[in-house]
Write a structure and sequence with these properties.
With 264 residues, the protein is an alpha/beta fold. The chain has nine helices and nine strands. The protein starts with 28 loop residues before the first helix and ends with a strand. The N terminus is likely disordered. The structure holds S-adenosylmethionine (SAM). S-adenosylmethionine (SAM) binds next to loops.
């Protein structure tokens, strides 16, 4: 008798790695930071500036009471939270990996590592950020809520936030297009109607290394990103960053930033 085993195969013939196949506790936050954020790369500078102006523009047009924010798949990256800092009474740093959760807690409970100063300086080129008298570290300590969780659990929209970021997550946690789609949908469903958001994606990524571990990615471009975001936001603005020869590492072709507002 012939038994058929159901299994998703990549074009190469090797099995497709799903989010649940990865041991996320193996991400080493120190090495991740060393590879990505110890120095301020020009592409990150450009991305931060665009997100800063998007959020500042939103709150100038819609002044109101302080907001709740979420950064999904925060990793050991503080800068998405910093972009939301002036307007939030709390910012949930939502992350699956226990090692990254520990790093985020250390930043909330101690003081922010000094390499984040360069990122804050870029934000302070806008007066909304410069006006924060208590400074980024104190405000971050007050508002940051570190939470270990699974992005896919947000898909039902049972909890919602007023502003959100998701940087290099949906495409960098799986090799499955369906999981990528579900990751983006989960992020969008975690946002209140009208919420401003910023989401960044590695373009055509082949995966990435942290420490000695390889982590998966799905190859997506602007068409795939826009195709999904358009279901949730009418005013998505995509910008491409990065030029061959000046990328952060090998194995991707640039970064895509999507800014917009969640549909009503
Ligand atoms: C490529 S890193 C991006 C980290 C950070 N946002 C940044 O900008 O550098 C992907 C992050 O997603 C986290 N992650 C993986 N699967 C997740 C899931 N199902 N739910 C929430 N976070 C997840 C990983 O632990 C990792 O921190």
């Amino acid at each position: 008798m012939l038994f058929l085993v159901a299994m998703t195969l990549e074009p190469s013939g090797s099995p497709q790695k799903l989010n649940c196949d990865v041991d996320w506790s193996l991400i080493d936050p120190e090495d991740y930071i060393r590879r990505n954020y110890l120095a301020l790369h020009p592409d990150d500078r450009a991305i931060i500036s665009a997100v800063r102006d998007h959020f500042s523009d939103h709150f100038q047009k819609n002044p109101g009471s302080p907001a709740s924010g979420i950064d999904v798949g925060a990793g050991p990256n503080i800068y998405p939270a910093l972009t939301m800092l002036p307007w939030c009474h709390d910012i949930t740093l939502f992350e699956r990996s226990p090692s990254n959760v520990k790093y985020l807690e250390s930043q909330r409970d101690g003081t922010l590592d000094s390499h984040w100063d360069k990122f804050w300086d870029v934000l302070c080129e806008n007066a909304d950020y410069g006006a924060l008298e208590e400074g980024p570290a104190r405000k971050f300590q007050k508002v940051a809520k570190v939470r270990q969780g699974n992005l896919f659990d947000l898909v039902k929209g049972e909890e919602r936030w007023d502003i959100g970021t998701m940087f290099f997550v949906a495409e960098s946690i799986t090799e499955s297009f369906e999981e990528f789609r579900s990751g983006v949908s989960s992020f969008m469903n975690a946002l209140e109607p009208g919420a401003p958001f910023a989401a960044a994606f590695m373009e055509h990524s082949l995966g990435y290394q942290v420490g000695r571990e390889d982590f998966p990615a799905i190859d997506v471009g602007e068409r795939e990103v826009l195709g999904i975001l358009k279901e949730y936001a009418g005013d998505v603005n995509l910008t491409h960053f990065g030029k061959p020869g000046n990328l952060v590492r090998k194995g991707y072709t640039g970064m895509i930033l999507a800014c917009g507002h969640r549909n009503n």
